[in-house]
Amino acid sequence: MDMSTKPDRFAVVIDDESIILAGMEIMLDTWGYQVLAAEDVETVLAKLPGCPAPDVILSDYRLRDGWSGITAVRAVREACGAAVPAIILTGDTGAELMAAAKADQIRILHKPVQPNDLRRQIDALISTP
């Protein structure tokens, strides 16, 4: 990823479904984001050094290798040393997820999410001081 010619905004996207990941990457790119997209957390963590702190993290809830969206967001935040705004996209409505997300200040959006709704949510998150 070449960050020397980056747009003003940087997003990290994690989803283990390659077609969804590709769609999110294209969509965010059209919105003016430099995107680090990966199917697993380990790949994101390996590519983060040298990158600026992301403006937003977008993650699926159920990921590979025992990771959840919550643990993925925690790992990316820790690697960046910043409380990066985050959104988890999921079909899960469990109380445990909601409690964990609230504790970690992660916004939950339930699938299916319309692109305009996602963009409004991202814009609201990154414009909040």
TrEMBL record:
Kindly list the positions at which 4-aspartylphosphate occurs in this protein.
60
Sorted alphabetically, which PROSITE patterns does this protein's record hold?
A: RESPONSE_REGULATORY
Tell me the ranges covered by the Response regulatory domain, including all copies. 10-126
Q: Which keywords label this protein?
A: Phosphoprotein
CDD domains according to UniProt: REC
Highest taxon of the source? Bacteria
Gene3D superfamilies, per the entry: 3.40.50.2300
Spell out the SMART domains in the cross-references. Answer: REC (SM00448)
Question: Which example biological process does GO assign this protein?
Answer: phosphorelay signal transduction system
Query: Is the Magnesium keyword given for this protein?
Result: no
Q: Where is the signal peptide?
A: none
Name this polypeptide is given: Response regulator
Lineage, please? Bacteria, Pseudomonadati, Pseudomonadota, Alphaproteobacteria, Rhodospirillales
